[in-house]
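In full, the data.
>
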Amino acid sequence: MKILARIMGILLFALSFGLPVYVQSAHADESSLQIVESFNKSGDETKNPNDPSEKRKREIMFYMGIPLLVMLITTAALGIAVGVYGKKLFLAHMVIASLSLCLAVAHAIVGIVWFFPF
């Protein structure tokens, strides 16, 4: 239980660094907002987000992302257990890390092929 509390503390600490970036981007001026809107309007208008094929693609990406997130958190937890607490879980850590890497690469390739240029 102590390990889980420490991991959550580390994750919250790491996420706190992203907050100033979000706050700064929330106060963007009007000209940058207009530029982004013009890019969005000038894109491919033939794509319909409610199209069943687009919906299915997004579902597949979501279902790939769930195990990827779980494996990344497991890899981090195993790495902390090995590095900080000296547990003999190095092989499990490396196996989960390898699976995470493979799924991350597949997730990135599928995302680029299906959704580029957005």
